[in-house]
Amino acid sequence: MRKLYFALVVLLLPTALVAQPRPDGAGASAPSAAPAAAPTAEPDKAEPATAPARPTKETICNDRRDDDGDQMVDCADSDCKDAANCQPGQGTERSNKDCSDWIDNDGDGAIDCDDSDCEGPGVTVCKGSWQGSMDGTGSAGTAAGSDEAPELREGMSVEDLIGKGDDKDGERNDQVCSDGVDNDGDGRIDCADFGCRFDPSVTVCRGNPGMRFSVVAGIAQDYNIKSYRDGDGTMDTRFSRIQLRSFGPIPMLQNSFYLLSMRAEKTPRLTFAMFQLPLGSHGHYLNINSGGGGLSSALILSTGKQLLLDPAYYVYSAFEQGNGASFELGGPLLDGRLGYRAFVAGGSGRSSGNVGGRYFTYGNNNYTYTVGGQLSVNIIGMFSRFDTPFLYTPVPTTLGFAIGAKYDQRAQERYPAANVSAVFRWSRFVLLAENYSKWELEFESFQTAYVVQVGYLLIPKRLLLAADFGAYLAGEMKNPPAILETDLRKQLDEQQWRVAAHLYVVRNIGLLSLLYTNRAVANTDKALPANVEQTVRLEAQYRF
Q1: Is 86 a member of any domain?
Q2: For a FRET experiment, which of 19, 121, 184, 217 has its CA 20 to 30 Å from that of 4?
Q3: Candidate from 290-299, 373-382, 413-422 with smallest mean pLDDT
C-alpha cells in the first residue's frame, strides 16, 4: 500500500507544479510562450467608474462620520472648529446625544463625559459597560426597564420623563424609593423608577459626585511648667482636637465645591461652612461662607495644617472677629500669577466662633459688618491660601505674597485694617510670615501683630522641625470707652515663641508631636510684670 501511495505522488507531482499559478496570476507556462493579447473593449460599453477620492478635510460636521479618515469625527476634528453647530454654549449636556457630540454645549469648559452634567440621570453613554440602576433586590439592571429611558427631545429635561410611557409616577420620595417595593406597580422598583431617578427632591438614588469625609484627631499630654492661671507643675491628658470635615463638589453643578467643618471635643459644633459656585469657565467664583475667614486663612484652615498645632491666635483675635455670613467673589488674573478676592460680611452681636452662634454682651446688639479685598501674587511657583505648611517630602521652590485691606464695623469698634503675608518654600524648607494692623477709629489706637513660622524637613517622610515667633502690640487708647467689653479687655500686649518636632509615624497620616510654648501676656495693671506661661505638650495626631 505504501508503495502505491509513493507511485501516485511521483506521477502527480509534476502536474501539480505545472498547474501552480505564479504570484502575478499567469499560468506556469514555458518562458518562451508568447503572452496572450489583451482583449479589446467593445465600443458600446464604457470603462468602469473610478471610486471617488476621500475628502482631505471634514466637510460635513454633523453627520457623525469621519469624512476625511483622520480618526476625528465631526466637532472632534479641528477642521470643524469654525462650524456653527460646533460652537460652545448653545444648549445643555443632559442627554446621550449631547454627551457624545464632541461639543461643549453648555459652555462651561468641559466637553461631553468630562462634564459632570453627563453623569446625571438618564445619560448612559458615559458609563461604559455599566448595567444601570440598582433594582429592589440589589442587582444591577435586572428590574424591568431599570436602565431604559426614552431619548430626550429638544427642550426636554429628564424630569419631563416622569409619568410618561409606562411610568405611573407613584414613587417620588426617599422612603418609598428605598423600601424594595414597586409601590406604583409599573414594573420599576425604587431607583429604577423614573420618579425616584429623576425627581431632584429624591436623594437616595442620587449618585455620589465624589464627596469625601476626613478626620483630624489629637490626644495630648500637657505639662504646665509655669502658669499664672492653672498653677505651676500641673498636668492634663485629653483629646485636644477632633475635627470632622465633609467636602466635595455640589451635585449637578460643574466646578462647584462645598466644605463643612465640625469640631467635637466638648460639644459638637459646626465651626465653618463654605459653598463655592463657578462664574463662567475661567476660574472666577462666588463663595458663600460662615464669615470666619477674612483677610487671613489661618482661622479656617484644618487643624491638621497648623505647623505648631494651633494658630498664633494673638495675630488674629483683635482683627478677625467673625460674622454671621460672608459673600466672596474671586478668581485668577494674569494666567493665575495674580489672584483677587473681594468680600462682604455681616451679623449682629458677637460671633461665638460657630456657624449660627452668637451672643450679646452688655446688651449690645449693634449690627456688625465687614467689606474688603485682597490680591495674591505668585512670583515663583504656585501657592494657595489653603495649602499646608507641613513638608513630608522636598518641594519645588515657591515664593508668593498676599496683601489685603478691609473696613470692619464691630459692636463697639470701627477700624480699617490691612494684612500682608508671604510664603517661601524651597526643597526641605518652608517660611511663613504675616502681619495684621488696624487703626481703631472710636478709641484712636493703632494695633499691630506679626508672626514668623519656619519648618525644616530634617529627614524626609520621617522628621519635621518647626518654630515660630510673634507678638501683638495693643497700643494706647487716646479715647478709651467707659466700659471695656469682652474683646477690648483681651487686647493686651503679648509675645510668644514655640518650637516643635513632628515625627511621621504612619506615612503623613499619623504624627507624634512634641511642642514647647513660651507665652508672655501683659498685666492689666501696668505696674506689674507680664504673666508668663511655659508648657510642654506631647500629642499623638492622626488625620485622614
Answers
A1: no
A2: 19
A3: 290-299
